[in-house]
Each structure stands twice: as structure tokens, then as C-alpha cells.
């Protein structure tokens, strides 16, 4: 670690040298960082996200970033940088790419929901071909499109340091997903990837077939997000066939697809033999009671590895929900379950109320809480879930990092 500089003083001096006005938001964050007594031993993440404030703040611009990296070049103890929800463009991406090529300490970089496009993606992907320190990159919501995604796929064939890559909501397409699947047959370092909401115009599920083929040979990937892929039962069957041969994947996200009970039948058969999966997200599909019963049967007798299950908004009635509640009384490994958005009846409310009141199901591990009206039990919604902190995290430390977010609590891919 280098000698600790005064970040705020260096920032003021850099603004003067570059004739750039100070951004009061950045100045305040740097002042707070200077007061942190642990930066010399643990390193710090500068939280400059533009959406975490009750009072509006001036968001970080390309020019602001140019000044900031001048300061961070002398601050080896800054190991994380959160620039989400700002107004960075391809010019800012160029500045960041240069910084990544020269910086040897940054491990976490969050650029989600800025205005970075294809050319900016090319610069950042190019920098990561040489960078050997960055562990976690979030590009979520930047419209890098198919071409930008292809450049990240090419980077994955070379980079052996990156562990987590988030390309969700980036408008990538079929060619990008196929290229990433091919790259991950060779890459041995990536442990988590988010490919949610690509722009796919085919109904043939070619991308799912390629991803399934990759899972047969990949032995390092632990977390895979395939939400909003338009996936149907055919795609689920291909994934399940591949996962019989895969012993590394622990978190599978199939949320917001077109999966019915027939597709869940394949998942149920997989769970009877697979002892690796720990988190299964089926949020916003249509598995109904038959699908819920398939899952409950597999979890009741056969599976003892799954720890978290999300079946939010799946048109499940009391019959399927009660079956899963019954399963939890015997399967002690299943600790997190999310059920809101289904059709609760009296028996559902009673069963889940008993699970919570007896301590079998903790309130932090589900998205419902019981209450009574005139002696009758009902369930209220809690704002918990597998993806609670995927797009937003509280700016203070009042909430534990893993609270109500099983993906963070159970599968800690890295310190970030």
C-alpha cells in the first residue's frame, strides 16, 4: 500500500490544475473517505452512485471522472469504485479504460446505467485484455448493443482475472450470447455472469442451446442469470440435460421467462440428482400448482442442496404453496423461499405463518409476514427477494450486505 494521501486536498488541487469546477458530491465523498481509519488495512470502495440520495446531487460527468482518476492514481487503497446512475458517456469510458490499463489495485467497478455505448464498450473491453486486477465489473443498463457485447466475449478469451461480469439490460443480441457461450468454454476464471434481457428476435432458443452446451464443459461458473430470454420448456430441458454433467453451477436465474409446469418437470428431475444448485429463481413464470408440486416432491425426499427458491408470481394457488410449506418442515436445508404474487388461500396463510412463528422460516429469508384480523391469519408482503440489491443498495451500512438477498448471502463469489 502506498502512503495515504489526503484525497479531498488532492481533488481540490487537481480541479485547479485542470481548470475544472469541483463537483460537491465527489468532494463530500472524498472528505468522508479521508475520515475512514481502516483504509490502510482493508481498502475502500468510493460510493459515487447518482441514485442513492434523498437530496439530488450533481451526477458525475466525463470531465468529473477525468479529475477523479488523477486523484485515484495516487490512492492504491481505493479498491472499489461505484459510478452507477451517472451521466458518463463514451468519453468517460475512454478515461476509465486508460485508468484500468495503468491502475493495479482496483478490484470492483460499477458503471451500471450510464450512457456508455458500443465504442465505450470497445475501449473498456480492450483495457481488460491487459488488466490483471479487476475482479467484478457491472455494465448493466449501458446500451453497448450486440457489437459491444461481442467485444466483451472476445475479452473473456484472454482475461484470466475477472470473476463477475454483469451485462444485463445492455441490448446485446443473439450473436453476442453465442460468442459469450463459446468464450466460456475456454475461460476458467469467470464465476458469475448476468445476461438478463437480451434483444432476441428468434423463437428457436438457439442461445439457450449454446449456453447449455457451454455448461457441459465449463467447470468454473457458479452463478448464471438468464432472465427475460423468452425461454420456453424446450430451453429448460436443454439446460437440465447439461446440468446433469455440471458440478459447479450454484445459482440459476430463469426469472421472467415462459416456463410452465412441463418445463419445471425437467427441473424437478434434475434436482433429484443434482447436489450442487443452491439457488433457483423461477420468478415471473407460469409453473402453477403442478409445477410447484414437482418441485416440492424433489425437495421433500431427494434434494438436500437447494437453499433458496423463488416462485414469485407463478399463478400458484393454495394447493401448490401448501405442498412447498410441507416440504420445508422436512427439508431443513431449504432456508429461503419467496412466494408473493401467487394466490393465497386460508391454508397457505396458516402454513407459512406457522413456519415463521416456529422459527423454521426467518422473516429475512422470505417475502411474506403474517398478521391477524379478527383472529384470521393473512400474509403481508415484505420487500425482500433474491434480487433486492441487484439494482439498488442502501447508501449506509444500516442493512447487512446479505440481508434479504440470498444471492449475496449464500453465494459469495468474491468479496465484491
UniProtKB/TrEMBL annotation:
Q: Which residues cross the membrane?
A: none
The protein's superkingdom reads Eukaryota
Q: Could you tell me which Pfam families the record lists for this protein?
A: LRR_6
**InterPro entries, per database record:** Leu-rich_rpt (IPR001611), LRR-containing_regulator (IPR052201), LRR_dom_sf (IPR032675)
Keywords annotated in UniProt: Repeat
Which SMART domains does the annotation name? LRR_RI
- State what protein this is by name: LRC34 protein
Amino acid at each position: 500500500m502506498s502512503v495515504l494521501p489526503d484525497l479531498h486536498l488532492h481533488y481540490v488541487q487537481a480541479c485547479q490544475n485542470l481548470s475544472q469546477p469541483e463537483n460537491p458530491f465527489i468532494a463530500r465523498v472524498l472528505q468522508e473517505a479521508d475520515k475512514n481509519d481502516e483504509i490502510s488495512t482493508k481498502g475502500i470502495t468510493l460510493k459515487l452512485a447518482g441514485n442513492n440520495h434523498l437530496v439530488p446531487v450533481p451526477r458525475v460527468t466525463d470531465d468529473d471522472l477525468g479529475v477523479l482518476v488523477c486523484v485515484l492514481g495516487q490512492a492504491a487503497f481505493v479498491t472499489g469504485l461505484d459510478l452507477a446512475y451517472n451521466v458518463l458517456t463514451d468519453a468517460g469510458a475512454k478515461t476509465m479504460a486508460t485508468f484500468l490499463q495503468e491502475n493495479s489495485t482496483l478490484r470492483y467497478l460499477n458503471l451500471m446505467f450510464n450512457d456508455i455505448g458500443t465504442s465505450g464498450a470497445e475501449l473498456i473491453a480492450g483495457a481488460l485484455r491487459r488488466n490483471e486486477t479487476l475482479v467484478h465489473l457491472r455494465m448493466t443498463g449501458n446500451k453497448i448493443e450486440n457489437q459491444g457485447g461481442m467485444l466483451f466475449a472476445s475479452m473473456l478469451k484472454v482475461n484470466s482475472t475477472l470473476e463477475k461480469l454483469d451485462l444485463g439490460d445492455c441490448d446485446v443480441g443473439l450473436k453476442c450470447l453465442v460468442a459469450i457461450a463459446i468464450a466460456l468454454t475456454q475461460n476458467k476464471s469467470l464465476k458469475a455472469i448476468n445476461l438478463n434481457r437480451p434483444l432476441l428476435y428468434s423463437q428457436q432458443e438457439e442461445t439457450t442451446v449454446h449456453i447449455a452446451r457451454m455448461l457441459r464443459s465449463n467447470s468454473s461458473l457458479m452463478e448464471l442469470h438468464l432472465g427475460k430470454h423468452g425461454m420456453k420448456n424446450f430451453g429448460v430441458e436443454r439446460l437440465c440435460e447439461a446440468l446433469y454433467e455440471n458440478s459447479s453451477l450454484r445459482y440459476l436465474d430463469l426469472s421472467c421467462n415462459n416456463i410452465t409446469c412441463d418445463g419445471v418437470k425437467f427441473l424437478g428431475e434434475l434436482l433429484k440428482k443434482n447436489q450442487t444448485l443452491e439457488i433457483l429463481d423461477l420468478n415471473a413464470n407460469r409453473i402453477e400448482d403442478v409445477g410447484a408440486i414437482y418441485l416440492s416432491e424433489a425437495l421433500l425426499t431427494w434434494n438436500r442442496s437447494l437453499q433458496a427458491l423463488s416462485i414469485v408470481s407463478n399463478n400458484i394457488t393454495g394447493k401448490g404453496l401448501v405442498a412447498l410449506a410441507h416440504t420445508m418442515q422436512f427439508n431443513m436445508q431449504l432456508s429461503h423461499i419467496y412466494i408473493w404474487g401467487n394466490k393465497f388461500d386460508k391454508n397457505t396463510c396458516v402454513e407459512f405463518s406457522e413456519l415463521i412463528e416456529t422459527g423454521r422460516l426467518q422473516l429475512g429469508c422470505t417475502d411474506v409476514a403474517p398478521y391477524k384480523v379478527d383472529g384470521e391469519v393473512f400474509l403481508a408482503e415484505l420487500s425482500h427477494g433474491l434480487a433486492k440489491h441487484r439494482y439498488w443498495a442502501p447508501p449506509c451500512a444500516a442493512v447487512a450486505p446479505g440481508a434479504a438477498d440470498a444471492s449475496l448471502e449464500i453465494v459469495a463469489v468474491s468479496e465484491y
